[in-house]
Predict the 3D structure of the following.
Amino acid sequence: MYNIAAVSFGELFLKGKNRGSFEQRLIDRIKYALKDYKDVSVYKDSGKVYVETQYEEDMDEILERLRKIFGISNISPSVKTSKDVDVVIEKTLELFGCLLEKKDIKTFKIKTKRTDKSFPIKSMDFNALVGGRVLEKFRSVKVDVHAPDVEIYIDIKKSCYISSERIKSLGGLPVGSNGRALLLLSGGIDSPVAGYMIAKRGVEIDALYFHTYPFTSERANEKVIKLKEKLEEYCGRIKLYSINMLEIHKAIREFCREEETTILARRFMMRIAEKIALENQMDMLITGESLGQVASQTMKSMAVIEDAIKMPVLKPLVGLDKSEIIEIAREIGTYETSILPYDDCCSVFAPDHPLINPKLENIKKSESNLNVGDLVEKVMSTLEIM
Ligand code: ATP
Ligand code: MG
């Protein structure tokens, strides 16, 4: 019964001058998310964005995709009609009939908003007129203006839109409206959630994955690609870079103390990530660290790891418990993939007793046994776009 979705945006209103470009971003995001639907048109009509399809049967799937787009606060599946009074009434009755078939409706209310003042009947009068016709046709229902079972909303603008429900959406800001950042994406539970949370604030994301092939498997790669694809449902296109860390791990094993392995490797990861970010006009890094979760995520460890670079690192999960992170991972659909057994880092190079309380000067001393610059260059030559 619905042939159009009316999309409202929340925080965009706050953005004053930028509003136009924010709206355009949102429209671009919507078009991208629906690019395989040839018959869909997306346009603005006073303050809302409309997504119209020629095929009503596509509407459920279209709504499903719209629900994953940041910047949308709610969506009303609607019927679009001309502004001919008789047509509006007829379509409203039709919609009401459909709703009655699906739901137990005892009371209703008509609410008209007449943005187009050339429409010949005033809002209040039109409410009464349409309400009267509904009562005439559907004898079982009554009007209740305070707490109706259903509210039919008739929005008269360039066209007329009739709707009966608002689907709450994700909110946030349209991806691309707030700069770019590089997500360190492992195959784990946390980093996809971290990427999701930052993208929600309008940040466009690329991702970087470190592997240790042949010690990590092809399947670990496939898992990360799958996670990237899941994230793309929310974030739009994500470029996924990969780097092989094998040479670095070999050097650390040869020249440094075993318990420092994780911290040293993480410092290398940060350096490489910073380099790739800078080369590709990204201003910040994103990781899935959560304070205290594992040895490398103590205050001390995190400080020592970040000391390796200048670029700011966003850690949106820092204050969340694992159970809270898992809840979000489930909601966004990455959890099932994240828990597949193929690991991003190999046990061969993982220390039995990683340092919890690393000292920066000791770590720096260990690093002086390595040729940091050369090693970074060496593994940078393994850079691939997956
Ligand atoms: P996750 O669940 O995201 O794998 P984790 O709980 O395993 O995180 P760590 O191994 O300490 O925690 O990693 C912390 C963060 O460092 C990750 O969330 C991710 O952003 C980044 N990271 C770790 N390993 C990799 C990797 N192989 N490739 C890319 N990023 C990584
Ligand atoms: Mg991990």
